[in-house]
Amino acid sequence: MPDNSQSDREDALSFDLTTQPWIPVLRINGQQDELSLRQVFEQASELWRIVGDLPTQEFALVRLLLAIAHDALDGPADIDDWADLWSDEQCFAAVGSYLDAHTHRFDLLDTRAPFFQTAGLRTTKDEVFSLNRIVADVPNGEPFFSARMPDVDRLTFAEAARWVVHAHAYDTSGIKTGVEGDKRVKGGKVYPLGVGWAGNLGGVYIERPTLRETLLLNLVAADTTGVRIDERDAPAWRRNPCGPGGTERASTGVRDLYTWQTRRLRLHFDEHGVHGVVLGYGDPLSPRNMHDREPMTAWRRSLAQEKKLRESPVYLPRDHDPERAAWRGIASLIADTLPGLQGSEPPSSLRPAVLEWVARLASEGELERGFLVRARVIGPQYGTQQSVIDEIVDDSVSMGVVLLHQQDRRYAEQAIAAVEDADRAVYAIGDLATNLARAAGAETDGPRATARDHAYGLLEAPYRSWLRDLAKSDDPYEQRLAWQRQVYRVAAKFGDHLIAAAGDGAWQGRIVETKKGTEWLNSALADKWFRIALNRELGSPDSSGTAPATDERTDSETTVKALT
Q: Where is this region: Disordered (predicted)?
């Protein structure tokens, strides 16, 4: 039987998210603080960023703020509306009265329509579960790697509010206990229906030195090319409160997606805080071909899905690779489209629509060409059938908006080609490490992988610095040549280190089999091949010729294949 005395106690409690502090922020002076929704918008010019318990929580909270801003401002409708907001320091003034009008839907503890929850949600046996189910920094089976060991017994109301938002965005998949009224329950359980909506995405958004600018730059206009926003688009708090179970429906736009109710939740609490939760599946939503609705991720064509579904094109979100730093994948951020398999084919990749929006601001002169933005990339890596979060990617790339300019693609092309320069140098270094290992009679895979990882690490900071300065140059091609010379010097110096560390065995060498017969391979010959590869791919460090082609295989790769 339900505990009526507990229900009475809960009726008397309230935690109004519009007035109570619960959002962690970092001020531009470096001070940390916790603010209410109202305070965040009132002080947005004085804040640097949101700082969540996890990067994914930060992403989810930014999307919540964007949904509020879109709805409170009813737009922006077009670029002129946006320009008016950009020039107005009090651009979020309307948010205060908006929150007043909807304050009843922002009470975390309300008994009729609690924020992002389902009133009265219960299982058949009235079970209340551990808060581990919504606190994502408690890894299943690995409590020793958590600050909360081994369980979460209690949360403050502020903490609980943040994890409720995060659960809708990133909750894991897997079998969940069924709740009363959910028609999907079989044998007391609901079988896997996928992760929270944002968990499908390789999250991307634009950051600036103040939260005000960050929010405005991610506030895509309704007429943005490639983004479809219906007139009836609305966030969760302007829709009827969710009942148990899920509702299959199409998304109406960004306000809807940023607050999509992928779960059904109910917190259990007393006057001291939250001590339990009921959690079930909510509204299902497939990420397939949602590229015209969801602006905060890049997209890739899936030939496998096209074959399976017999439709074309099929786009899926491009997730982040934890093994690949953001600067190495810059093409997915700044290339307007990547070509399909044939000239008439749909693009193989689409950049995030939020970057298309910033590109439009740059192309139409609302932002100066040298205006610096930071593309922040955040996303989880799920494991074991998406039932756990294994890793979280959190990275960024700073660049001038000229790289996104739609009419002048020279800067973007050279920025992408510069990454390819780094790739070719790293391939050459990997081949050098392989040849040195073969010369010493050692295993080759480990030394090659280690050398390549280290080489990318050596090139990361120089590339990021070069990319930030690229917008200041009048000649991106000259800047590319300067970058090639820098890459050559870094690679050559690291090659010297590898050769010196290879030892006497590699110096003496040994006979190895090649496709052309046998060859006496030692560190001297390996070094010679390495220098030839660098010269062909990057030119001499003192040369000033044109940039090499980027679509040819390197001689160093050919050499290593001949040896194997």
A: 538-564
The arithmetic mean of pLDDT across residues 98-113, rounded, is: 97
For the chain, the distance separating the N- and C-terminal CA atoms, rounded to the nearest angstrom, is: 72
Looking at the fold, whether 373 and 504 belong to one and the same domain comes out as no
For residue 348, is pLDDT > 80?
A: yes
Same domain for 377 and 489, yes or no, is no
The residues, ordered by sequence, that sit 6+ positions from 392 with a Cβ below 8 Å of its Cβ are 54, 55, 56, 378, 379, 380, 381
Instruction: Name the band, by pLDDT with cuts 50, 70 and 90, for residue 539.
Output: confident
Residue 311 lies in a domain: yes
Neighbours of 478 (CB within 10 A): 12
Question: In this structure, what token pair is assigned to residue 294?
Answer: 């969801």
At 454, the amino acid letter reads H
- In this structure, the answer to whether residues 435 and 550 fall within a common structural domain is yes
Is residue 73 domain-resident?
no
Residue 368 belongs to a domain: yes
The more confident residue out of 71 and 343 is: 71
Mark 489-503 as b/e (b = at least 16 C-beta within 10 Å).
ebbbebbeebbeebe
Work out the percent of the chain whose per-residue pLDDT is above 90. Answer: 85
Output the CA angle 297-343-405, nearest 5 degrees.
Answer: 45
Of 77-91, 156-170, 173-187, 501-515, minimum mean pLDDT range: 501-515
Give the orientation angle of helix 55-73 with respect to helix 157-170, to 10 degrees.
90
Domain that holds residue 308: 299-404
User: What is the predicted pLDDT for the residue at 513?
Assistant: 81
- pLDDT tens digits along 5-61: 555 555 679 999 999 999 999 999 999 999 999 999 999 999 999 999 999 999 999
Find the Cα–Cα–Cα–Cα dihedral 527, 533, 534, 535, rounded to 10°. 110
H-type helices in 4-77, by residue range?
A: 4-11, 37-42, 55-73
| Claim to verify: residue 444 and residue 351 sit in the same structural domain | no
Residue 44 is which amino acid? Answer: A
CA distances from 105 to 17, 119, 242, 432, 558 (A): 9, 12, 12, 62, 64
pLDDT digits (tens, 9 = 90+) for 471-529: 999 999 999 999 999 999 999 999 999 999 999 999 999 998 877 778 899 999 999 99
Distance between CA atoms of residues 56 and 137, nearest Å: 11
439 shares its domain with 525:
yes
Separation CA 222–CA 227 (nearest Å): 7
Alpha helices in 382-475 (DSSP H): 410-439, 445-470
The per-residue DSSP string of 125-189 comes to T---B-GGGT-TTS-TT-GGGSSS-S----B-HHHHHHHHHHHHHH---S-EE--TT-TT-BTTE
State CA 189 to chain mean position distance: 32
Instruction: Please count the structural domains in the chain.
Output: 2
